[in-house]
Amino acid sequence: MIRHVIREVRADLIASPVQTGFQDATRKVETVGMCVIRVNTDQGLTGIGVTYHEVGGEAIKEMIERYYGPKLIGRDPFETEEIWEELFHYARGVGRKGLSFCALSAVDIALWDLKGKIMDLPLYRLLGGNKKKVPVYASGGWTSYDDDALVAEALEMVRRGYKMIKLKVGVEGGRNIRRDTQRCRKVREAIGPDIGFMVDANNAFHSGDAVRLANEIREYDILFFEEPVFADDIPGLRRFRQGTDIPLGTGEHEYTRYGARDLILGEAVDYLQMDVTRCGGITEMLKVIALSQAWNLAFAPHAMEHIHMHLVSAAANGAFLERLFLFEDITAMVFKDAPVPEEGILTIPDKPGLGLELNSEFLR
Ligand SMILES: [Mg+2]
């Protein structure tokens, strides 16, 4: 095997304003964006890494180009464990979470893309998997929609072949449980009994109200209830779990194996939803997955389905992927050939590494 040496690292920032101003229980989405990184080797291969942002994309790009990128020059892309540890400690005083961790995640993903390309293996196979087809659920249903728009989007998801859908709860900032209950009833009546239905409160409630809502909507057969309380309120998440038999999804705001450990030891999660483009890349996510397996939890990562498809395919406890309708346009622009789910199934391309090709015309 020819040895590759990293020669160049560059990052591009894509940001697109959200005109219609989608809103969930706790925030308005003003911008969606990605930071795309390219790591070039002396043998002419390019590894692609990606992370995303609503706020602070410029800081991610700066962190990659000015601080992490130069540390990669001259390195062998197979040294992922070594490089991860080095970058983690390099920035640990300012960056064990948040934007700098999004940057570190993108760097690590690019190295794994390179490893796959050098080995001429799709990443899911390099990780030990063999499933080419991964279930994916549709995700949207903002709290800023009126009831008709909410039901219309749910029906559109079903029309497009999705077997599972996830919609937001927490209208009026989480202060109107009666309205949330009505909205869930209307959706369940519209989609019928056979579609999986999840809800996401985006940190809206305190645990008492979250339990009240869970008990109200239990009859609508909820597959899981996501982020009922503030993501860091691990005791609140535990109280929620003790108050309902609807499984709890959380983790999209957690970073590293340490974040996973705290959720797990706090008995605060059933579906672990950590996000590889934030939580530390593939290197760290493999450890997170191992922890989730040791506690017999489901692994159901947040968004970024084109990266996560490899991990959900390879992980024995991989449940399904999330496809955020909000990101469909930007994903289609950034990548030439990102696979689109059919009948609620994403098929992983038969290409080495991530199997994705950047649309360099668009990036220019
Ligand atoms: Mg969520």
Task: Give me the secondary-structure topology.
Elements: E1 6-17, E2 31-41, E3 46-53, H1 57-72, H2 80-90, H3 98-119, H4 123-126, E4 133-139, H5 147-159, E5 164-168, H6 171-174, H7 177-191, E6 196-200, H8 207-217, E7 222-226, H9 234-243, E8 248-250, H10 256-265, E9 271-272, H11 276-279, H12 281-294, E10 298-299, H13 305-314, E11 321-324, H14 328-334, E12 345-347, H15 360-363
Parallel strand pairs: 4-5, 4-11, 5-6, 6-7, 7-8, 8-9, 9-10
Antiparallel strand pairs: 1-2, 2-3, 4-12
Helix pairs in contact: 1-3, 2-3, 5-7, 7-8, 8-9, 10-12
Bound molecules: magnesium ion.
Residues 200, 202, 226-227, 252 line the site of magnesium ion.
Task: Describe the overall structure.
The longest helix is centred in the N-terminal third of the chain and has 22 residues, at 98-119. Helix 1 packs across helix 3. The model has no long low-confidence stretch (mean pLDDT 96). The protein has 15 helices and twelve strands. The protein starts with 5 loop residues before the first strand and ends with a helix. It has two domains: 6-120, 2-Layer Sandwich (Enolase-like, domain 1); 125-362, Enolase-like C-terminal domain (TIM Barrel). Strands 4, 5, 6, 7, 8, 9, 10, 11 and 12 form a nine-stranded mixed beta sheet that branches. Strands 1-2-3 form a three-stranded antiparallel beta sheet. The protein is of the alpha/beta class and 364 residues long. This is Mandelate racemase/muconate lactonizing enzyme C-terminal domain-containing protein. Its cofactor is Mg(2+).
Which class best fits the helix and strand makeup?
alpha/beta
What portion of the residues fall into strands of 2 or more residues? 15-25%
Question: How many discrete domains?
Answer: 2
Report mean pLDDT, rounded to a whole number.
Answer: 96
Bound molecules: magnesium ion
Question: Superfamily at the CATH H level of the largest domain?
Answer: Enolase-like C-terminal domain
Order of helices and strands: EEEHHHHEHEHHEHEHEHEHHEHEHEH
Distance between the termini: 33 Å
Task: List segments where confidence is low: pLDDT < 50 over at least 5 consecutive residues.
Answer: none
CATH topology of the largest domain: TIM Barrel
From the alpha carbons, calculate the radius of gyration and give it in angstroms: 20 Å
* Shape assignment: globular
In CATH, what is the class of the largest domain?
A: Alpha Beta
* Number of E-type strands: 12
Give the fraction of residues assigned to helices. Answer: 40-55%
Number of helices: 15
Q: Any guess at the CATH architecture of the largest domain?
A: Alpha-Beta Barrel
Main beta-sheet annotation? 9 strands, mixed
